[in-house]
Amino acid sequence: MALRRNGNSDSTPRAPRPVRKLSKRLDVARQLHDLEQDTALDIVDIERLRASVTRCLWLFLAVGSVFTTTGVQDFLAGDRSPADPVWWGCWGVEPCLVGILITILRWEAAMIARNIDIDSRAVDWLKRFLLGSTLVMNVVPALFPREGGISPGMLAAHFMVPILVFFLAEVMPIVQARCTQARRAITLTTKTPASAPASVPAPAPAPVTVPAGSIEPATPAQVPASAPVQVPASVPVPSPTSDVAAEPSPPALEGLGIPTGMQAQIRRLVADLDRPVTAVDIQQATRLPLSIAAQVVDRFTPATANGYAH
């Protein structure tokens, strides 16, 4: 019992409750701060934004396609009744046209994300044909209604909605491509350990004293036994950095919106090349847009000419 009382008396007193609660909040704040400094968080934010915007665009595109589908079906079905199979088949024409359009635009998004220009007239004419077909088949029934007169509101709706659907389909691949470019432009930085303290140079070794009797003289002259021979342990070598001029500092890449990790990657690329760096080299290594890669090359051109990279 005495030992137990002594053990309890020697234990550290527990901190007050407000101190414990504040300590936990500070620990959470420090962890959040460390996570916010990680560049991977930017990738997560971009991906969440892309998914949210794409979801909304798909919703509005589907609503607009339903409206244009009714106009196309009315134009194609004519006076047929639901008993005719053609009346039911007319409902599938507009989804087919919209599906082809979306497939073409998804392919364009993949090319835009890789900075590949699409200069084919066939692609442009195909998109215009799909838009024109949907637009004509929606506007004609509103201009020439089978019953009653022309309704200005329905005419405006059948004119605007097909164009709106087309531009929504055009915007969706651009959103996908730009989000992909932004995600690839982010370079994950690895945490480096704290820099070790500068090492103190070791003192020069003292000369070794060797007795005269243990060394055979090169000449027949006798060396007194009492006189020790001083043999230097090492020969001082001149520092190679004393006569070499300091290398110029690498050019700064601030102001271009390039992450720190990617800047280091670009400098390593310039240093490893045995020729002047080009915008294509920068773009292939970092997937930056061609305009930004050209600005990076402009900053490295004077440094390369002066002999920084080589």
Automatic annotation (TrEMBL):
<feature type="transmembrane region" description="Helical">
    <location>
        <begin position="85"/>
        <end position="105"/>
    </location>
</feature>
<feature type="compositionally biased region" description="Low complexity">
    <location>
        <begin position="235"/>
        <end position="246"/>
    </location>
</feature>
<feature type="transmembrane region" description="Helical">
    <location>
        <begin position="56"/>
        <end position="73"/>
    </location>
</feature>
<feature type="transmembrane region" description="Helical">
    <location>
        <begin position="156"/>
        <end position="175"/>
    </location>
</feature>
<keyword id="KW-1133">Transmembrane helix</keyword>
<protein>
    <recommendedName>
        <fullName>DUF2637 domain-containing protein</fullName>
    </recommendedName>
</protein>
<keyword id="KW-0812">Transmembrane</keyword>
<feature type="transmembrane region" description="Helical">
    <location>
        <begin position="125"/>
        <end position="144"/>
    </location>
</feature>
<keyword id="KW-0472">Membrane</keyword>
<feature type="region of interest" description="Disordered">
    <location>
        <begin position="235"/>
        <end position="257"/>
    </location>
</feature>
